[in-house]
Design a protein that fits this description.
heterodimer, A: Arc Repressor Mutant, subunit A, B: alpha+beta, Alpha-D-Glucose-1,6-Bisphosphate, Chain A, domain 4, 4 helices, 8 strands
Chain lengths: 115, 156
């Protein structure tokens, strides 16, 4: 996934209504009106959120003209969760360096005390 | 060296939880986490070179870390302090962007320093997403909705 595509995914996730829609879809597919029911929101407004999610590759829409069920696209979500590994790399390396730096500081303090 | 990393079962795949014990008093560790002249000595991933770190250490204050990477790119990590309880706890938001204009989402980091037998056990929780009011919620994060998404992705 390109940086731009991932960026679009994060943008799509930045909205609490869209996250709630995704959470609902994690339970199974649903229609636009079902998805809109918990919110005080017009169907066109719900549709706009769905378009953002679809463009970001987070959901898929069925092709039936009347009832276009939405479902979660796990492949689109996975890269977002993979970022946890990036954080792990960052922090573990930082911890290694912090440990070495602490040793350095404490050795210096001890030697200062001796002088 | 004492290192432990395990999945956070309450937040599958969405939260990183790391614990490490450092042979130092926690007041010293807290200082190394909050003073820029110390932070630049250890902050970064394996590709990180020079780090320019500035912070405004108060609740609502911002920090920025501009990192020169070995591949010539520049990364910028920034955030806002949500909670500062010296020498026990630090909570801050964390987002990053690179010079290509890529912006990662806002995430939330909670660091706790616990004294144990003269050493300090540091626990770091990094949540994949922070809500707009993450600071106010102090790490409530996404709660149940995110857990469900994490479980869904885990089944793939």
């Amino acid at each position: 996934m390109t940086a731009d595509a991932l960026s679009e995914t994060f943008q799509a996730l930045a909205d609490p209504t869209r996250r709630a829609i995704l959470a609902r879809l994690a339970l199974g597919e649903a229609s636009v009106s079902e998805l809109g029911a918990p919110f005080d929101m017009s169907l066109p407004a719900v549709s706009r959120h769905l378009k953002v999610l679809e463009r970001a590759g987070l959901i898929e829409r069925g092709r039936q003209a009347q009832w276009r069920p939405c479902r979660l696209n796990g492949e689109g979500l996975k890269p977002v969760f993979d970022w946890v590994e990036e954080y792990r790399r960052f922090w573990e390396h930082s911890f290694d360096r912090l440990e070495a730096y602490l040793d350095e500081i404490q050795a210096k303090d001890a030697s200062d005390e001796r002088h | 060296m004492d290192i432990a990393a395990q999945p956070d079962l309450d937040h599958p795949q969405t939260t990183l939880l790391l614990t490490r014990t450092f042979a130092a008093p926690r007041a010293l560790l807290f200082k190394l986490w909050t003073q820029p002249e110390h932070i630049v000595r250890w902050w970064g991933c394996a590709e990180t070179g020079e780090v320019d770190f500035t912070n405004d250490l108060r609740v609502g204050g911002e920090f920025t870390a501009v990192m020169q990477l070995s591949n010539g790119h520049t990364h910028r990590i920034s955030g806002v302090y949500c909670k500062i309880e010296a020498p026990e706890r630090l909570v801050f938001t964390w987002s990053w962007e690179n010079t290509d204009g890529f912006q990662g989402g806002e995430t939330l980091v909670t660091v706790t320093f616990e004294e144990k037998d003269g050493q300090t056990e540091l626990t770091l929780r990094h949540e994949s997403f922070a809500t707009e009011d993450a600071c106010a919620a102090h790490g409530e994060g996404w709660g149940a909705s995110l857990d469900r998404l994490g479980e869904f992705v885990a089944t793939l």
